[in-house]
What does this fold into?
Amino acid sequence: MSEKTPGNPVLSKAGCAPDLRAVLARVRVVLVAPSHPGNIGAAARAMRVMGLSKLVLVQPQRFPDPEASARAAGADGLLETAQVCETLDEALQGCVLTLGCTARQRGVPLPELTPQAGARRLLAASGEGDVALLFGRESSGLENRELQRCQAAVHIATQPVFGSLNLGAAVQLLCYELRMAVLSGGEEAGVDAVDRREDPPATHDELEGFFGHLAQTLEEIEFHKGRGSGTVMARLRRLFLRAELDQREVRILRGILADTRRAAARDDGGHE
It folds into this structure.
């Protein structure tokens, strides 16, 4: 039997090394709008080889499809249990950490991790709940609005002239690094450096609820006068994602926002 300790991955019976199956079972591989069913099958095969099992598809163009099954080559079980979502927020619901795999930063500055560092960070967060590896479209990768859902970006160091990896190959590489991070026993994964939390980390949906509340409040108090609302919110998202808020902190911040809106409403009423 395995046990879970605050701030650490699920431990084996010996209490020292993360349990391989328990950790990998918490990792979601999320493919955003894959256009080619063969790539879905290749990703499923890559996951199966490395021991991962949670495949999530956001608006796949063709799925299920015989070509996906053919490319899965024995990993059909992952295709059968794959979760198909209409939105990225649905795919990430409940996740405590999301890393986006991207060839370049685009217009969203995020902390950039190597595949090895990304795997270590996922391992360190896996004791608190599900974590996600996010992969973009074959043709254009992840859009800025999707990267804004990520705490950090994972960049594979390919040569610059011809540096775009096939989707299945990228999934294979990240899944391999994650498996190796778990097999290292946790010490190299930086598990001991993770602060012990008094409260569980905020999940993706709790953070998105807070960001929606924040955006609405800023609009109501007319904070954006003379400022670009999109730019401000993008920076605020990065600020709070870097802070790695826990659930109690999110409740405190939302309480502040609620009081701010009530105070603004009273002021507006007094000037009528």
